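Bit of a strange request maybe. I'm writing a small parser for structure token strings and I need a real example to test against, not something I typed by hand. Could someone generate the tokens for this chain?
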Amino acid sequence: MADQEFLRRAIVQILQNSSVQTADIEEGSRDQVGCRLWYRATTAASPTQTDSPGADFSEGRYLIASLTKSVVSLLAVQLAAEGLYYLNEPVRNFLPSFRRGPLRTITLRHLLTHTSGLPDMLPDNDALRERHATISEFAQATAAIDPAFQPGHAVSYCSMGFAVLACVIEHVTAVPVSALLSERLLHPLQMHQSWLGLPDEQADELLPTTVPSILPPAQPAHCNWNWNSRYWRTLGAPWGGMISTVSDLGRLLQCLLRQGVSETGQSVLFPATVRSSSRNQTRHMAGLQETDRLRRPWGLGWRLNWPDHSGCFSDFLPASAWGHWGATGTLMWINPKTERWCVILTNQPFEQSQQVIQRISNVIAAAG
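Reply from user aminoacidic:
Good idea to test on real output. This should exercise your parser:
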């Protein structure tokens, strides 16, 4: 394991020299948590940092944004492993709105690998949020748009594909995705501080205990649909609406390093689910350019590390590392070669926090 005191000092120094006000960081190995740090910049001169639950603040519950996609993807791939569908199955088999010509060839694999051609965000995204649209309404609006390219012939990051994926999951299981995720993954892994959307009946109690996100310029502070609104934090958007903590996400990453087995020895995911999720799934897509197939690879809802890209997880991780970024200023990754993992959660938008997060990630990855 890395020298925890060295990591702590290095991480705090990076944070103190930044504008990040709130951050929780945890790293570890397959079976052990290493360095854990909760940072609160109470004043520029006197930040507070600890890993002790007895301190004057607690571990934060963060909106983890697109890290949500990776968690929901594990459920989707597990259901395929159980025979409820196959990944090359067309979406039209489940959703009638996908039976029209331009959408007919979109498959579940395309949704999971961002190769469907569907939009990242809808043109009327703000209007949908303003009227508190449901996930189903986001999916229906997505089905009204023609793909930007022939499915399987390019890679374009696509949040709305996960609205569609959630509707497929609910169609085949007849259970809301948020409830199914809790039953099949969060509860078995004792991720008791994690929800795909805060439960509506607990929202008044839980909302004040979640870390407010610093809003990007495109989101008005005084509206009822931004990242901090009750609507968004209870919606359970499968592309970015999960609330979680570094400890809970650490338990998940340790489970994945143990090939789907929890710390109590329970088999939560099939090893095949973990292997397929983390392998390059674009390699054999004949319609993709070589750069997308080999140098910008995606697993199933998880991105592999892109060493020469501005969004690499760390300069000191191999191309086989896998993880995800989040727009609210979040990152998690697994290094399969060293069996180490890292979770970094902040409340500052990606555009402002990326540099800080990557420097912290470098320190953690290099120390391993």
